[in-house]
Amino acid sequence: MATTTNYSWTTPDDTALVKDGASAIRALGTAIDTSMNTALGTKKAGMVLLNTTSFSGVSSQSINSVFNSTYDNYFIMYKNTTSSGSPILTLKLRAAGVDTSTNYGSQRIYSQGAGVFGERDGVGTDELYVADLANTGQAINATQLYVYSPNLAAATTFSATNVMLLSTTLYSTANVGFQNSSTQFDGFTLIVSTGTFGGTVSIFGVAK
Amino acid sequence: MAKAKEDQVFIGVDNEIIELTGADKETFLADRKATADAYALLEAEYKAKQDSRENAIKKLAEVAGLTKEELASIL
Fold this sequence. Notes:
The structure holds two protein chains of two kinds. By secondary structure, chain A is mainly beta. Helix content of chain A is 10%, strand content 51%. Chain A contains one helix and 15 strands. By secondary structure, chain B is α+β, with helices and mostly antiparallel strands. Chain B has a two-stranded antiparallel ribbon with strand order 1-2. The A-B interface holds A 53, 55-64, 88, 90, 97, 101, 117, 119, 121-124, 126-127, 191-194, 196 and B 1, 3-4, 9-15, 17, 28, 31-32, 34-36, 38-39, 42, 46.
């Protein structure tokens, strides 16, 4: 009897009789069901990749139609690959292709070498402070961001961290914040405060 | 994409690249300037506070007849 490569599920031989097809399909289905139950039980995947977008040479990058009712919370990874100058990276939520520029609040703690600093609303209240970029630090520059409830009719909250190597100085920033409205957002825009930037952004939905 | 001229502004929307022109471009640039200005103001305030603190420590050290480092070790 033929079997599959990885799980050794039994499949009909080429010479098997067609009249035994129903039984063979049932046996294969049962074997798959047993294997899946052993591996996962009733658990679902914790995170699902929804979108990956690579871009370069732009002053902002919008991602539409990624937040919806399937997930409440999201994880966003951004790997910076290019930037002109040393811009601040900020984020605005958007709905139906239009950015929202009000009712944000953010708090930032950042360190550069041995120094540790903090501030509230470092870029005002029209966007969220996400990270710092530098045109010399791309090799070690990564940002991750959790976004809670963007598509619910409730306030959206954020937490973001960023690491960057500026020459030989390690630079890190941790941001938390909110957008306080009941707008049901379906996307977001990343913006640099000067020049252009590039990289790859991936958005994951976190299972409820 | 071709290298942008200095006065051109391109934005990405999903997998499309769009050049901003006219009022859209002016609004975008004004918004970015507001971001940079807000941060510059914050940095200036922080630097002023740091300078003020440094001066206070220096004066205190002079009055106490100590070096800044000696005073810092006590504080």
